[in-house]
Amino acid sequence: MRDSQIRPRLAGLFFLVAVAVGVYSEFGAHGQLRIAARLVALCFYLVVTVLFYQIFRPVNRALALAAALLAVALLVIAPLRWHPAGIDVGLVCFGVSWLITAYLAFTSGLFPKALGVVGAIAGLAWLTFLWRPLSQALNPYNLAVGIAGQVVFCLWLVTFGADNSARGPVTNSVRPDHRHDDSPLRLARVAGVLYAIVTVTAMFAEIGVRGRLITFGDPGRTVTNIITHEPLYRLGAGADITAFLCDIGIAVLLFRLLQPVSRTLSLTAAFFRSAHATIAALNTINYIAPLIFLGGGVALATTGQSQDLVMASLRLHGIGYNVALLFFGVHCVMCGYLIARSTFLPRPLGVLLAIAGLCYLINGYSAIVAPEFKRAIYPYVLIPAGLGEWSLMIWLLMARVNRERWYAMNTG
Which of 20, 46, 183, 313, CA to CA, is 20 to 30 A from 289? Predict the structure, then answer.
């Protein structure tokens, strides 16, 4: 693969990792682990900055350098939390840097113009932090738009890279046209994009919202957080629903991709993933219920009864989530088996995914049958699960499918 394809894909992948680690550092990590996670995220974004400069330097050297310097300014200012007169200087630099990057993408011919528009919208969202009253009024929607725009931008880079034909004549008589990729590559890429959306939205809902607002040992604090941060709480529900809708699409695409191995097993695996998404989506009712119980406002929230209802709903939501994960675990085990049996995907990838499924099954069953055991193994049991799913997501995004073997099995 040529450098013009490797750099955009690496930049997009490293940026997605930086976002994931950054979200974890803000909402999931504590103490020295938080400091370490922030440093890791900053290092990944520094690499992204260098790659962006190399990608866009042929378009406009001065603007590419300006975008890179502003990004470096963010890396220096962000740890200092410098907010003179309420202005988040780091995020403002970030916004201007992204506006310049979006302009370069729009005018370069290397990427679709719509991608530049998406990047510009993300940059404008970060520029709302130039005026504190505006950023507070738009919070958390400005954060959601900024992160979503950048994630979409980088997902495109990871999935499609750059259009080499925009740089001049290509050496082959046939120019690359991603729209006419072979079927298994299209299936893999689209499934990978949906998987990345599921990963980002699920992490945001679990770590950025529930991990930040819900404390099961302190009902009063939880109720106050829900009332005070109701827009963020509702945004968590929206992120969950988005993930479950994408799960249905992934189920269909993986069925299409793996059916050459065994149509019956791949169809059954798709059923289990769809069942997981359906149960989890219906379970969102338990997540929304506290907003109905707290409809009376803060005065109602001070009564013990309302707090009990809220916490009971949230516990039911947790149980429902674990039930849904049982179906998801079966799906992962079956898909892992199919991948291991296939000749067009690497066997270790299937093994990792099957192990991920077993971890989800252990986590789900223990939450229902042996809660004490669940508390002892959580969250460590989900580390192999995350490794298996992330490996599959990255492999799909890179569309590493052996087309000849896929067609051979499909017609055999």
Answer: 20
Helices and strands of the chain, counted as H and E runs: 18, 0
Yes or no: say if 392 and 349 are a contact pair by the CB < 8 Å rule. Answer: yes
Q: Cα–chain-centroid distance for residue 306?
A: 34
CA end-to-end distance (rounded Å), the chain = 30
For the chain, give percent helix, strand, coil, nearest 5: 85, 0, 15
Question: According to the model, what pLDDT value does residue 382 have?
Answer: 86
Which is nearest to 310 in space by CA: 319, 318, 301? Answer: 301
Helices marked H in 204-343: 211-213, 219-228, 230-258, 263-293, 298-301, 304-341
Which single residue is written with the structure tokens 């990004």?
Answer: 71
Question: Structure tokens of 176?
Answer: 């690359």
The pLDDT tens digits for 114-130 are 888 888 998 888 888 87
Q: State the average pLDDT over residues 360-366.
A: 92
* CA distance linking residue 77 with residue 354, whole number of Å: 43
Res 81: pLDDT: 66
- Average per-residue pLDDT for the chain: 84
Radius of gyration of the chain (CA): 23
